[in-house]
């Protein structure tokens, strides 16, 4: 229905940012994804944006390595049959050699990460933030390419 289509379009804005940055065909790209649950402090995956985002990124050829402090088990149950999706046990390991960090759920633990370690781990310092968690000017000052929704 129309509401569901609008919701999915909203969820895909993060993918649109990735496509604008990396191109329509995402084959060969690997994205670190933080946050699988619908909202923080839950493992609820029912309306989770991550489901639509991961499906579209992988449909375009990308690999996704995802971390969530609570929802990995539930996400594995719901999305685990996707061969281009892997789950991580900690928030930093998905970053190793990834083309960008995508932030989907605003868990408190993601609010003040070690940006130096993030920059060192990523292939290029690109953050695509679906939750507008960080100060764009500060990140650009730290030589990050910061793509946020509505900014």
Automatic annotation (TrEMBL):
SUPFAM superfamilies: UDP-glucose/GDP-mannose dehydrogenase C-terminal domain (SSF52413). Transmembrane segments: none annotated. GO terms for molecular function: NAD binding; oxidoreductase activity, acting on the CH-OH group of donors, NAD or NADP as acceptor. It holds the Pfam family UDPG_MGDP_dh_C. InterPro entries: UDP-Glc/GDP-Man_DH_C, UDP-Glc/GDP-Man_DH_C_sf. SMART domains: UDPG_MGDP_dh_C. Gene3D superfamilies: NAD(P)-binding Rossmann-like Domain. Residues 32-136 form the UDP-glucose/GDP-mannose dehydrogenase C-terminal domain. This is UDP-glucose 6-dehydrogenase.
């Amino acid at each position: 229905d129309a509401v569901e289509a609008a919701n999915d379009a909203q969820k895909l804005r993060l993918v649109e940012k990735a496509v604008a940055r990396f191109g329509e065909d995402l084959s060969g790209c690997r994205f670190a994804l933080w946050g699988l649950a619908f909202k923080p402090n839950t493992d609820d995956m029912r309306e989770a944006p991550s489901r639509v985002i991961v499906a579209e990124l992988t449909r375009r050829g990308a690999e996704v390595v995802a971390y969530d402090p609570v929802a990995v088990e539930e996400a594995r149950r719901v999305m685990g049959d996707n061969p281009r999706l892997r789950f991580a046990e900690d928030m930093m390991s998905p970053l190793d050699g990834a083309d960008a960090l995508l932030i989907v759920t605003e868990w408190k633990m993601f609010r003040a990460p070690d940006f130096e370690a993030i920059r060192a781990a990523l292939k290029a310092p690109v953050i695509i933030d679906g939750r507008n968690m960080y100060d764009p000017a500060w990140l650009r000052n730290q030589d990050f390419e910061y793509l946020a929704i509505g900014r």
